[in-house]
Amino acid sequence: MGSIHARILSDMGVLVGVADKDKATVEQVAKDYNTTAFSDFESMLDETKPDGVVISTPTSTHATIAHTIATNYDGIKGILIEKPLASTLEDGKKVSEIVKERGIVTLISHSEIYNPIVGKALSLIEADAIGTPRTVIHDRRGFVSPERIPSLGDVFEDIGVHDFDIMARISNGPGKLYAQSNTVGGIHNSGTVMVKFDSGTEHFFHLSRQYAGRRRYMDVSGTKGALVLDLFGQIIKVLHLDQAPVAKGDTIRLPERGATIKVYGEPLREVLNDFLRCIKTGETPRVSIDDALCALEIVEAARQSAESGQVIDIEVKPRA
């Protein structure tokens, strides 16, 4: 992911350096994108004095690096952290406290929020196109090689945060959560999560990193109709309850905006555009640190439920 960030920032003409402990990796990335290689982020920041920095490192290091940068580098106006914000809610809160204290723009790369198909679906829901959402199915599956799993953390923090953030933009209030999982090397690697809000809305999550393929689908059933989303294909199908079961329905196909929109990770261009805009304006990014903390609360509840077998009480606060 770090090399993807470097490629896009280089395209934008704002890349001033890359840092990595692996000498061969950092030198190759620096060569590919005509920038300077550093063996650690401290020397990179000291020498280049950038306005913003992207943290794309193993998940367990996110919070420590972000806290160090926010504490010691007065010139930093913005920090972008690859998802998730941190491995634990406690660590995430520590980062939140320091960046807010220092007035640093902080964006967490829940890149699915920047997928235009998700944005269109959320606007349709807000416009009452399908009535009140009642059942939402989130299906996010793919494959991660076992040797990469420890650096990414469990499936709830690694890929679940995308859908937990989407859920928080559809539903809020008190509810109950139940999760179960399968593990690889003691790490949750696939699982199902069920959330029922006191309002009656239900969310079901199928999360897996041991699937031979790649699936990114959502199905939102409401009191007036339903939305069926293919997040890769950039298609939304709108179904109405007054249609016959075999009716075709309405299909909304978003402009492709070039082939790159279908490449995994390319929504990062929209993430980085938002990041640069917010550094200049001081505005809050579309995925704020508070959004990331909300998603981490669901991550920890899912872990607790999967490990204990118990139903966990949760509360999703309305977004500011």
Task: Describe the structure in brief.
This protein is of the alpha/beta class and 320 residues long.
Describe this structure in words.
The protein is α/β, with parallel strands linked by helices and 320 residues long. The protein has two domains: 109 residues, NAD(P)-binding Rossmann-like Domain (Rossmann fold), CATH 3.40.50; 176 residues, Dihydrodipicolinate Reductase, domain 2 (2-Layer Sandwich), CATH 3.30.360. Helix content is 37%, strand content 29%. It has ten helices and 14 strands. Strand 7 and strand 8 form a beta hairpin. Helix 4 runs parallel beside helix 5, helix 5 runs antiparallel to helix 10 and helix 8 crosses helix 10. It is globular and about 65 Å long. About 3% of the residues have low confidence.
Features:
three-stranded parallel β-sheet, Dihydrodipicolinate Reductase, domain 2, 29% strand, 320 residues, globular, Rossmann fold
**Fraction of residues in β-strands:** 25-35%
Helical segment count: 10
What's the number of domains? 2
Task: Please report the total strand number as a whole number.
Answer: 14
Radius of gyration: 20 Å
Structural shape: globular
Unreliable runs, pLDDT <50, ≥5 residues? 256-265
Ends apart, CA distance between termini = 29 Å
Structural class based on helices, strands and sheet pairing: alpha/beta
The CATH architecture of the largest domain comes to: 2-Layer Sandwich
| Helix share bin | 25-40%
- Main sheet record: 9 strands, mixed
CATH superfamily of the largest domain: Dihydrodipicolinate Reductase, domain 2
- Kindly report the CATH topology of the largest domain: Dihydrodipicolinate Reductase, domain 2
CATH class of the largest domain: Alpha Beta
Mean pLDDT: 92
What's the SSE pattern?
A: HEHEHEHEHEHEHHEEEEEEEHHE
Oligomer status: single chain
